[in-house]
Amino acid sequence: MRYIIIGAGAVGGSIGGRLAESGHDVVLVARGAHHAALRDHGLRLTTPEGTRVHRPPVVERPDELELRADDVLLLSVKTQDSTAALDAWSARPVAGGGSAGERLPLVCAQNGVESERLALRRFRHVYAMCVWLPATHVEPGVVSAGCTPYTGTLHIGRYPSGTDATAARIAADLEKSRLLAPVVPDPMRWKYGKLLANLANAVEAVSGRLVSDEARDLAARARAEGRAVLAAAGHDAVSEAEQDAVRANLSFDPYAVPEGGGGSSWQSLSRGTGTIESDYLNGEMALLGRLHGVPTPVNEALQRIANTFARERRPAGSLPAAELLRIIDAGA
Fold this sequence. Notes:
single chain, alpha/beta, 14 helices, 44% helix, 18% strand, 6PGD_dom2
């Protein structure tokens, strides 16, 4: 199997680098300065074991690559970029006949729960992957991942549910590449659990690490709204205890990531991308809350403020948590 990593950033770069390191056939897909750096200098991946440079093929567009019948497309762009990527790749021809959307498996290795629905409109064979892989990408061509002895945990299953031989083969390749990959029949249950944790991403992006009482209070309130929304919507989510039991197999080395680094939303602001994934994290709770009559004032405010920061390219972590709390409470 050849793995085409669509979005070779923090998560995609870590997965692609580990697969390449273990001898698997990998193609990295990236844009702009990151693409140029990967093409010219390779992927510089730092883990607690050290720094290695991997040089798999790198492309910027689907038409630069001839797709094969044994390809696996692993989508790891932010959800706000999913539609464009899915449209670009699904129509591409595959050697032997048919299109990627008709023939190839597509794995959504992303936060949130929306990309799988977007993908299933375009691909017949969609797999959900719940990603727990603390990694940082703020410099072109450079990715840092801080967990050991495994780089992350990647629960995988068919979307919307079930398992099959393809999921098992992908998981086996990941496990050989220092990535835990449990095959589960209910991957969305894991993704909803991760979504609850990700509701704090906007707080971290806007105000920095969750070290103050105000930041922790906002994160707790956002998650409490999320749990109420998921209960009203009938969506099951894994418990924190279940997640902790899996993560106990990994330990995090803070010295393996850049000082001051944060999660995926913080990294988007740090790179000045102009977009942030809050519409599909806090915004998912706002959407479900409106559908099911559950108020979500904290998540709505975090969605709005995070989007303003991204649009205006304000620095990550530049609004003190006490001020963020005051703004949200004033509007509640």
